Amino acid sequence: MSERVYLLPLWVRLWHWTNALLIITLTITGISLHFADPKLPLVEFSLAARIHDIAGLALVAAYAFFAVANIVSGNWWQYVPKPPGIIDRCMVQARWYLWGIFQGEPHPYPVTKEVNFNAMQALVYWFIMYIMMPTLLVTGLVFMFPQFAPEHVFGMDGLLPVAVLHYLTGTAIVLFMIAHMYLGTTGHTVTTMFKTMITGWHEH
Amino acid sequence: MSWRNSIAAAVLGLICFLPAVPVLAADAAPVDQATIEQNRKANAECYSCHSAAGIKNPPKAGLDLGKLKDSRLEPEVFNPSDHGVMDCRQCHAKNHYAEYPHAEAGKAATSPCTECHAAKSLRLEPQFNASVHAKNKGLKEKFTCSTCHNAHVSIVQKRLKDPAKIVAQDNHGCLECHDSDLIFAKFAPDGEKTPGTKKKRPDIDAIHDWLPNAKAHWNAVRCIECHTPAVAEGKMLSHEILNKEKAEKKCLSCHSANSTLKVRLYRHMVKEEQQKYGFTNSVMLSTSYIIGATRHPLLDSIIIALAVATLLGVLLHGAIRIVMNARRNKGKSQ
Questions:
Q1: pLDDT (tens digit, 9 = 90+) per residue, B134-168?
Q2: Which residues, listed in sequence order, are joined to residue A188 by a DSSP beta bridge?
Q3: What is the pTM of this model?
């Protein structure tokens, strides 16, 4: 019989699923806007623009909630890659993803109440949540209020670098999301981790 | 009449007609520097009263300063304009302005635009007649070229060059009426629902509430980008101003790689580098990043390739897991 541990408080789960829903919405509308073309009928342009604006602001609010709740609850510590031996632990984890998982080997660093993330997860989550996400949100806000963008950069509209940075960070988060959803299937069973994110209880 | 006689008559007719045709402004030879100097010297006489400096220090006693304020112009504004090389009296009949006070008939005797712009006027008239400004009852008679085009200020797109300045100038022509109850009332047709009352000025924000980031659009593009019919490459925009029902509402007309802004706001830049730093429609980037239109195809390809690689990567990883798991289970059962 598998062991159970209560891992994720309600606020983390609510924030996670809100975040997921908003990022999926922003991805679809963002693709509709960036790749706007009469031959690519995704979401109608003006509708996509409105949804993207609203969902974007909601994501800013969700992130602000996450930042505050993270500090108050001490959850921020989970995201900090902790030396020593980070690289070695990452190598062990990468070996498991590329080899051990196919051989049916157990997770090299099982989840505990004290340490939720393996070293590789902590590194990636830290990079996504503390570097990529704020950059995406700030560039999105400047996009929404272009008066805060520089007037000109290298003889071009100052919004261009903001737009490119928004596009690149958005892409990084979408690629992370694809991998994140897939890696969610690598638990005790394919659905274990999804259940954990719904109930808060983790099964070994 | 034989065809030879027909041609001879046509040529003869044309020769006789030519001296009567006014100067075609667009084809007119550039004005030489000596003439410009001469005209500006003559205009200085007008500015001695009709300018801020003239009003501050009137050269004559008893001037009607109220009237002067309404007819003041600054050389810094007029000189760079398209008409800035001309003598004021070329349009403002000289025989009425030699003496002070000026003759009352002077204003009515101002030369019409068609005196110089006859050919263009003939071409544009049918377009204007189809315009909302001519179709609304009682409006056509109130409209002249100068209702929208300020002859003392206007600079043609090709000379103005900077799209931001073109937008500011051209939108001013529209918003002067459409953003002012006072001026709109002077032109307003009868109200459709309540005859005898004047149509109220529609709230500009309310009628554009369907347009995301309307304010950003008004700073970046002209009203006429959407409120004129489709235009062919290299052609001038039509003077047929479309009402809100007929105006363009398809965002993709501008927000796509094949943006119509190429042949509208940016048509004077058509000979410039269009793919600078690899961006599509890079001339637009000089003033505006236009989502959908100013893309970087190489960057897009790299990003699409990365997304496809990630998807294929997880699918392949998943497939290997399934196969390996099946093999393990088979091994266990044996």
A1: 998 888 888 999 999 999 999 999 999 999 999 99
A2: none
A3: 0.84
Q: Helix, strand or coil for residue A134?
A: helix
Q: How far apart are CA A88 and CA B322, in angstroms?
A: 28
Rounded to whole angstroms, the Cα distance separating B270 from B281 reads 10
Instruction: Name which of B280, B303, B327 to mutate to probe chain A: the one with the most chain A Cβ atoms within 10 A of its Cβ.
Output: B303
CB B251 within 8 A of CB B214: no
Give Cβ neighbours of residue A22 (< 8 Å, ≥ 6 apart): A55, A58, A59, A62
In the numeric block, the tokens 């069973």 are attached to A189
Q: Spelled out in words, what is the top-level CATH class assigned to the domain A4-203?
A: mainly alpha
For B200, list phi and psi in degrees, rounded to 5. Answer: -80, 150
10 Å Cβ neighbour count for A20? 14
Most distant CA pair in chain B, distance: 119
Peptide bond into B101 cis (omega under 30): yes
CB contact under 8 A, A46 and B325: no
> d(Cα B123, Cα A142) in Å, to the nearest integer?
45
Instruction: Kindly determine whether residue B287 and residue A157, on different chains, have CB atoms separated by under 8 Å.
Output: yes
pLDDT tens digits along B98-125? 777 787 788 788 899 999 999 999 999 9
Look up residue B188 and give its DSSP letter.
P
Residue B32: Cβ-neighbour burial (10 angstroms; 0-12, 13-18, 19+): exposed
Report H helices in chain B. 3-17, 33-47, 52-56, 65-70, 75-78, 88-91, 118-129, 132-135, 145-148, 157-160, 163-178, 181-187, 204-207, 214-220, 223-226, 297-333
The residue behind tokens 């963002």 is A30
Place of tokens 């459709």: B192
Flag if A35 and B294 touch (Cβ within 8 Å). no
- Chain centroid, CA A88 distance in Å: 24
Torsion of CA B250, B255, B258, B264, to 10 degrees: 80
- Identity of the amino acid at B118: A
Six-digit token string for A111: 């989840």
Residue of A nearest to B308 (CA): A175
Please list, in sequence order, all residues whose beta carbon lies within 8 angstroms of the beta carbon of residue B262, skipping any fewer than 6 positions away.
B233, B270, B281, B283, B284
Report pLDDT digits (tens) over B210-245.
Answer: 999 898 899 999 999 999 999 998 889 999 999 999
B309 touches chain A (CB under 8 A): no
Domains of chain B, residue spans: 117-266, 296-334
Q: What secondary structure letter does DSSP report for B244?
A: T
Torsions phi, psi for B57 (to 5 deg):
-125, 80
Sequence letter at residue A35: F
